[in-house]
Every structure is written in C-alpha cells, then in structure tokens.
Amino acid sequence: xxxxxxxxxxxxxxxxxxxxxxxxxxxxxxxxxxxxxxxxxxxxxxxxxxxxxxxxxxxxxxxxxxxxxxxxxxxxxxxxxxxxxxxxxxxxxxxxxxxxxxxxxxxxxxxxxxxxxxxxxxxxxxxxxxxxxxxxxxxxxxxxxxxxxxxxxxxxxxxxxxxxxxxxxxxxxxxxxxxxxxxxxxxxxxxxxxxxxxxxxxxxxxxxxxxxxxxxxxxxxxxxxxxxxxxxxxxxxxxxxxxxxxxxxxxxxxxxxxxxxxxxxxxxxxxxxxxxxxxxxxxxxxxxxxxxxxxxxxxxxxxxxxxxxxxxxxxxxxxxxxxxxxxxxxxxxxx
Length: 335
Ligand code: AQP
Description:
Helix content is about 55%, strand content about 5%. It has helices spanning about 25-35, 50, 60-75, 90-100, 105-110, 115-120, 130-140, 155-175, 220-225, 245-255, 260-265, 270-300, 300-330; strands at about 10-15, 40-45, 85, 150, 180-185.
C-alpha cells in the first residue's frame, strides 16, 4: 500500500455490526471515511468482535456483519485500494487485546462513560467484554500503526485511552506503536436521538423512532422526522435550550452544506412543519443513492465474500508483523 516516494497517512476506523447503521454512523463516521479514502491509506473494518458485548442471535449477527460489510463497499471505499475486512477474520486483534489488557489500568477502564451507559442499558448482562471493549479497540488501532482515526464524538474517550496505552507501552519497551490522533469531523460528530435529543442516536436503541437507519424507506424517514421531538417555541434557531431543533438543523446542514445562519434565514417566520418537511426531503435525497448501491451489492454475495476474504488477508499480513514485534518486546520465547 505504501508508496516509497510518498508516505501517506494510515487512516483506520471500525463500525460495530450491532444493527443497521444510522444516519449518526453515516454523518459522524462514514462520510469522513469516504472523503479521507481519497488521500490516505485506509483500513476499515466491521467490528463484529465488539458486537458480542451484547447478546445476539447467531444468525442475526452473521447477517448483520455481512450487511455492514456491504455498507462499507456501498460507501465506495474501494477494497482494491484500501483494506476493508471483518475484525473476527484476523485473530491478531484478540491476541494483542489480551497483551494490552495487561498494560491498561482497571481505574482507567472504569472511567469510560460508554461502559457506564451500556451497563445501565444492559443491567442483566454487564459482562467483562463490555468493560474491556476499549482495550480491544486500542488493539484494533495499534495493530495497524494508524496515524488518524476518524470517529464520532462518542469514541473520543476510547481513543484517548488507546493513546495512553500506546505511550505507556512505548515508554517501557521503546518505540513500538504509532500514537494515533483522533479525527472528529466538524459537522455531524454527534447526531442525537430523534425522541430523546439529550442522548446520541444509536443503532441499538430499542425505540426505532429514535433513529433513522440507512435502510429506512423514504416514507419512514419522513414519518420519523415529522415525529421528532422539538420544543414549543416554533422558531427555527440554533440555541442551547433547543436540542431537538439543533439536531434537525445539524442534519439539514450535513445534507445541504448550509450553515446555521443560512438555515435560520431560510425558515424565518415559518413553523416546524415546513422545516421538518425540508429536513426529511434533504435526508431522503442524501441517503437514496447509498441505499440503492447497498441493495445492488447485497445481490452479489460472491463479490462481498471475495472482498472480505482478500481484505482479511491484507489486514492479517500487517497485523501479524506488529503482533510479532510486540511479543518479542514483551519477552515471549520465540522459535
Ligand atoms: N449518533 C452518532 N453521531 C455521530 N457519530 C456516531 N457514531 C455512532 N453514533 C453516532 C460513530 O459511528 C462510528 C461507528 O460506531 P459503532 O457502531 O462502532 O459504535 P457506537 O459508537 O456505539 O455506535 P452506535 O450506533 O451507538 O452503536 P450501538 O447502538 O451498538 O452502541 C463511530 O466512529 C462512532 O463514533
């Protein structure tokens, strides 16, 4: 991948196959991935190992992982030029995660807000995997010496931990890992729930009206936006006490490229009905080509499997090199 004459940045990011991706995943992550793939060496993965921190039906997990992989292809990430693969196909992720577990502190992992949130959501299944999720994420990143990791705002804390672990390990054993930098997009880094706009939109939210899936048909998108929680002021303006309207303005801005001042001017003197209709139309137009491309790719399972298998081979080659180096430094006896 690397051209000897010109060193390109390695950009890496993953998405869990914990459901159908939402417009939160799309604006917070996928769109940046697509843009960054032009000028960087990119590694994109379906984090299916992360997805088992909550209970799944095996057949559902298999289907969702394949569908998620197809979304990465539908985004145009070009598996011939980039590495696009499924995390569970490369065992080095789990192997490095174990080693890094021994270089992460219990106190650090306990501070992760996603662990606290998910422990509340899944009080009947607070498993150790949920707790060590950020360490596996650190392994995902550090295996490939990523320079930049484009993520939504919710992953910022996990990325900080990955950086801390890398620096700690380098401090003990000498330069081993590249310390990755986060890339948080200026727009869409935190798309909020349509029903509870104090919290982020999530694909695993039990309330399906809270999120827009990339597979939602046009009329469903329009209905969900129409029923989005706003406020009683009936004025389209961006303000601290209007999370629902701010969120819809963000969506509209992500789709149209207009800034908040322009949006306020466009809807001055008009109510939320007009505004929501315009947001719905913009979101529908933004998602339609992607959804069509996904439907097309999903009909060609052989192509999906060929890409996934080649992607795993390329990823494993790089991952094995890093893991070997790490094992040597830690002191494992090698033959
Ligand atoms: N609401 C969001 N706004 C902006 N970015 C978001 N991302 C997720 N939700 C939003 C970003 O999408 C990328 C992939 O996320 P993930 O699937 O690996 O994990 P997640 O952050 O836990 O996403 P979900 O949708 O909330 O999944 P579940 O419901 O399974 O927990 C990441 O870069 C993330 O920041």
